[in-house]
Amino acid sequence: MKTIRKIGVLLPLLLLCLVPAVSPAQIAIGISISVHTAPPILPVYVQPPCPTDGWLWTPGYWAWGPAGYYWVPGVWIAPPRPGLLWTPGYWGFVGGAYGWHAGYWGPHVGFYGGVNYGGGYGGMGFIGGGWSGGVFRYNTAVVNVNTTVIHNTYVDRTVINERTVINSHAAFNGPGGVNRQPTPEEQTALHEQHVQPTAEQMHHENTAKADPQARFAANHGHPATVAMAKPGARPAVEGRPGPAAHPANNRPATENRANPANNPNRPNNANRPNNANRPNNANNANRPGSANNESRPNTANKPANEPNAPGGHPANHPPANNHPANKPAPKPDKPPQRS
């Protein structure tokens, strides 16, 4: 009988020993998903401007679905109530698997794995602003806001180096990713009262989940839409190269105007009715040169007005376009050649 009692006491203790040790962060928040594939690195993108006063930035992240990892774009979100801050979710490697710790709202920003999400989340805390008297003040040295509608801003660059933990694009905490543990302040934040993601946030995630282009299998770590100003809005930022992908947009507006002959679409060049379409240029000899030149557009590009082209012609200008002052008018019985 005594033996049976001893077994009854020791068995629960043995079961507790078999439970793997977990960090306090995992106990407080819990792991909602566990997979054996590491999340892709975080894409780099420019944060869209905050569209509405009082909204907070929630950075993008790699989520897991039936088709594998998919990208949830970063977005500005209205908090459940004033005074709450967003703690992003993060992937943590423990016991041979990658577990997802979901994000939450709370009075302070807690531990999010030391992952440098950008947009104010450099790996520890949030440096993009804070609440003051029920009003959120934005640090424009860190976050991007539309100052035409948001005026409660300030500039503090000192926090950038103080609070950015690591310059890495790793999307998880643990070996091979970010090696960082919670600070005492973050441990305290873990035990505060938390508010779950809003319905708008969940709808935003589900929309990304249903988008085939958001899946890593399709975009290979380069999602087409990486961020947007608000849920359901048109993509504000696309995961594509910047101006380098459109070199024509970076050219000066006057680049192709140096020589009008290089632009065949300009109606004032070859398509001028006073040039090739004139049946006989012999009548030009009876016209005062200065009077006609004042009414003709773009005369500065004609060979007759070029001081450095005596007797010469631009590569694409036919000799028939020369002003009569530089070339004798052709005989009436020999009209100029048409271009």
What is the spatial order of strands in the main beta sheet? 1-8-7-13
Mean pLDDT: 74
How many β-strands, per DSSP?
15
Largest sheet: 4 strands, mixed
End-to-end span in angstroms? 117 Å
Radius of gyration: 34 Å
Question: Which descriptor suits the 3D outline?
Answer: globular
Sheet-strand content, in percent, reads 15-25%
Q: Class by helix and strand content?
A: alpha+beta
Query: Ranges with pLDDT <50 over ≥5 residues?
Result: 1-28, 239-327, 329-339
Give, in order, the helices and strands: HHEEEEEEEEEEEEHEHHHEEH
| Tally of individual helices | 7
Quick structural overview:
This protein has helices spanning 2-18, 24-29, 158-163, 184-190, 199-209, 216-219, 289-295; strands at residues 33-35, 56-58, 61-65, 68-72, 74-77, 85-87, 90-94, 97-101, 104-106, 129-132, 135-139, 153-154, 172-173, 225-228, 237-238. By secondary structure, it is α+β, with helices and mostly antiparallel strands.
